[in-house]
Design goal:
Elements (H helix, E strand, L loop, with lengths): L8 E2 L6 H21 L4 H9 L2 H25 L4 E2 L4 H7 L2 H18 L8 E5 L22 H7 L3 H6 L11 E5 L1 H16 L3
Helix pairs in contact: 1-3, 1-8, 3-4, 3-8, 4-6, 5-8
């Protein structure tokens, strides 16, 4: 994966990785609370999020930040300089290879135990400007079969912290704006990252 030119880094000598993980846990819990309060089935969860759009946006933003802080905390704990970026794909790519392998392995175990045909794992939010004709949200992105491995999920969610936080911006008058929140997969990645942190103690 391509690296940015001349990235800015967080110096592990002056950082507090434990604080990053404490914050990550709090953001994770806030995101998870919204998800766990909804119904399990995909169809019912879609309706739940349509009536709780603010909670959906907050959950997606919080989970993206939790993932970012888990990865930065692990880097700093290992005395690896953490890049000043919100890009989840770049952050995962910056983790030591052995940590990446353990996260992928743990994620695979959790995914195998978690996924069922009817359980909601993602939801799409489609927004239109007030002056545009309103359309039903549907699930065009979520219906597309996409790879669910760690790298692919993080690549699709790499700018989630910014895109969800500023969801209200840059809405095309005709096309609207669409974002897919792969909450089920991102939660499992977060749990896998947290397991790596816990293994340090």
């Amino acid at each position: 994966m391509a690296k940015r030119d001349n990235p800015q880094y967080i110096d592990p000598n002056v950082a507090v990785p434990d604080a990053a993980i404490l914050a990550a846990n709090a953001f994770y819990e806030n995101a998870h609370q919204f998800i766990s309060a909804g119904p399990l089935s995909s169809e019912s969860f879609d309706q739940y999020t349509k009536h709780n759009v603010g909670g959906l946006i907050a959950s997606a933003t919080n989970l993206a930040l939790a993932l970012e802080l888990y990865m930065k905390g692990i880097m700093l704990r290992l005395n690896v300089r953490a890049p000043h970026t919100h890009d989840l794909a770049d952050l995962f790519d910056g983790l030591p290879d052995d940590i990446q392998r353990r996260v992928v392995q743990r994620y695979g175990q959790l995914l195998k135990a978690k996924v069922s045909g009817k359980q909601s794992m993602e939801v799409t939010l489609l927004a239109y400007r007030a002056e545009s004709p309103r359309q039903e949200s549907g699930l065009p992105m979520a219906q597309i079969t996409m790879p669910r491995d760690v790298v692919s999920v993080l690549e699709r969610a790499k700018d989630a912290f910014v895109s969800w936080r500023y969801f209200f911006e840059s809405v095309d008058p005709q096309e609207g704006k669409e974002l897919c929140y792969e909450h089920g997969y991102l939660l499992l990645i977060a749990q896998s990252l947290r397991a790596q942190w816990d293994a340090f103690s």
